């Protein structure tokens, strides 16, 4: 029975991890999108808050009703703006005392202790807790009291990280955690979260992770509790040395913070620190700036202090990255210049060869004209030679045109990059280097020339290939352009059968080429001899020359 339960728990844990282990780049995209929409998300939340503020303008509200509205406003502002949350809590403490409601006054003082601790005002938070009569606390209020004491020591520990005082704060936290665990309802968020921290501090990290993974589906992204619990999971995985899962849960926590307009955040700064250690300086710098701006907007001294300690490292790394990019750009410029010179030399050589071929063609045409009447058999050979020369001229002409276009593009690219470098416009230069537009355009030009030239030589190639395929698997080309499948077969017809070479010419992966070839064989009516049949498809010259001979043959 115990073995079955263990297996079921492991399966549940694996499923949860799989859900959390979403594609890293997709998580980055989601986070970046939410950061870009940060102003819109906050504006929407402020419109919601404004509706509650309007309710307070009703002079007929009782003190209890006013307290309830203030409490809702505090909950909205508690993660958005410290001073507004503080203001509504002060009003509620005064209202509770006016009504003589000890329970409401205690709840508001506990909330006051929370936001004061979050803002780094530890002394004031301790005063707020000291004003509470602990002898009469019970139930959820007692749990909340222990929770705030634990939280206060947690923030003190973060602030005192690396100092001799840190161990004392951790011991205090463990004491308050024991008290909270003893009084909280089993299965509640506070119970699970604090028990996980308690076990992790004792060294039982796997048990803590399992508890949080089992409870996490009960929470929703955008809720502060979801952000805290995913941050806890990231910390625990970091303690185990599992940096992959640590990053995933930091991303999930940061996404939740941005979606819920939570400005009192920690995960985005931790993620920036981790990215800096990995060498991703640009993204680290971006996320740290967002974290600092959010901390400034909320008004928390603790987070600003933590971020300021990280900023010099990220700035130094960012400068190193820029210097490295500058050196790479200079190397690239030298390479482009060398390639341009080589292309000019190649053009001159091609031009000389073209002149030589043209002179040879004229001589052959003269000799063929003299022998045409005497030797009928040579007519076919002469026709084939002329068509061969036309193919050569077409390929040479296309090569010259393509080479000329590429030289012009390379020269324009070099001039533009040189101008940006002279003007020290690093942003434009980086955008130019990063852009793939020139590469895509050159690739499209290459494919167009290849398709056009090949179809002029083998106009019946597509029909011949379709004869080798089953009826439901015929290939229809895109107008005068070949599909990727037809290009692979065209290269096989030209004698290029190595997957590495085909992948290099078509700018595809070896796996893609292998998959296409396998699928084409599977769809063929001659599976074992499919590629051999493709390689033996006749060119249009041969077919045309044969027809000419048949017409001119005597009898």
From TrEMBL:
Entry annotated with the keyword Signal: yes
Stretches of the chain forming a coiled coil according to its record: none
Pfam families per UniProt: DUF6377
Signal peptide: 1-20
DUF6377 domain span: 259-503
InterPro entries in alphabetical order: DUF6377
Keywords assigned by UniProt, alphabetized: Membrane, Signal, Transmembrane, Transmembrane helix
The keyword Transmembrane helix belongs to this UniProt entry's keyword annotation: yes
Chain ranges passing through the membrane: 331-354
Protein name: DUF6377 domain-containing protein
Source organism of this protein record: Marseilla massiliensis
């Amino acid at each position: 029975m115990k073995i079955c339960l263990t297996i079921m728990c492991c399966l549940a844990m694996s499923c949860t991890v799989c859900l959390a282990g979403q594609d890293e780049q997709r998580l980055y995209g989601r986070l970046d999108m939410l950061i870009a929409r940060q102003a819109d998300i906050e504006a929407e939340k402020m419109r919601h808050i404004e509706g509650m503020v309007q309710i307070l303008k009703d002079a007929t509200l009782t003190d209890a009703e006013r307290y309830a509205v203030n409490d809702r406003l505090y909950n909205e502002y508690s993660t958005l703006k410290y001073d507004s949350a503080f203001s509504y809590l002060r009003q509620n403490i005064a209202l509770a005392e006016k009504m003589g409601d000890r329970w409401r006054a205690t709840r508001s003082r506990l909330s006051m202790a929370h936001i004061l601790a979050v803002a780094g005002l530890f002394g004031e938070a301790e005063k707020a807790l000291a004003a509470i009569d602990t002898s009469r606390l019970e139930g959820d209020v007692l749990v909340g009291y222990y929770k705030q004491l634990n939280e206060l020591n947690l923030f003190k520990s973060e602030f005192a990280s690396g100092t001799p005082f840190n161990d004392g704060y951790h011991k205090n936290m463990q004491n308050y955690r024991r008290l909270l665990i003893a009084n909280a309802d089993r299965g509640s968020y506070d119970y699970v979260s604090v028990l996980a921290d308690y076990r992790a501090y004792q060294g039982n990290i796997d048990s803590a992770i399992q508890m949080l993974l089992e409870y996490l589906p009960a929470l929703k992204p955008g809720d502060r509790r979801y952000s805290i619990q995913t941050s806890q999971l990231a910390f625990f995985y970091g303690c185990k040395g599992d940096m992959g899962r640590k990053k995933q849960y930091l991303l999930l926590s940061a996404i939740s913070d941005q979606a819920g307009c939570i400005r009192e955040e920690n995960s985005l700064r931790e993620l920036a620190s981790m990215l800096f250690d990995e060498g991703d300086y640009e993204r680290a710098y971006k996320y740290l700036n967002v974290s600092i701006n959010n901390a400034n907007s909320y008004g928390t001294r603790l987070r600003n202090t933590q971020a300021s300690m990280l900023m010099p490292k990220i700035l130094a790394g960012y400068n190193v990255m820029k210097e490295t990019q500058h050196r790479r750009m200079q190397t690239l410029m030298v390479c482009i210049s060398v390639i341009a010179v080589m292309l000019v030399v190649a053009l001159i050589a091609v031009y000389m060869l073209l002149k030589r071929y043209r002179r040879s063609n004229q001589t052959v045409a003269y000799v063929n004209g003299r022998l045409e009447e005497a030797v009928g058999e040579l007519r076919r050979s002469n026709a084939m030679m002329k068509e061969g020369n036309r193919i050569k001229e077409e390929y040479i002409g296309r090569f010259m045109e393509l080479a000329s276009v590429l030289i012009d593009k390379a020269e324009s690219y070099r001039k533009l990059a040189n101008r940006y470098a002279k003007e020290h416009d690093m942003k434009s230069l980086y955008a130019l280097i990063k852009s793939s537009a020139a590469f895509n355009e050159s690739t499209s030009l290459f494919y167009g020339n290849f398709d056009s030239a090949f179809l002029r030589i083998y106009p019946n190639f597509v029909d011949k290939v379709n004869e080798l395929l089953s009826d439901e698997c015929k290939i229809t080309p895109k107008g005068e352009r070949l599909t990727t499948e037809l290009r692979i077969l065209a290269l096989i017809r030209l004698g290029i059968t190595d997957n590495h070479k085909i992948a290099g010419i078509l700018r595809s992966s070896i796996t893609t080429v292998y998959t296409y070839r396998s699928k084409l064989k599977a769809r063929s009516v001659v599976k074992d001899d499919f590629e051999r049949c493709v390689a033996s498809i006749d060119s249009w010259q041969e077919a045309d020359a044969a027809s000419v001979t048949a017409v001119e043959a005597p009898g």
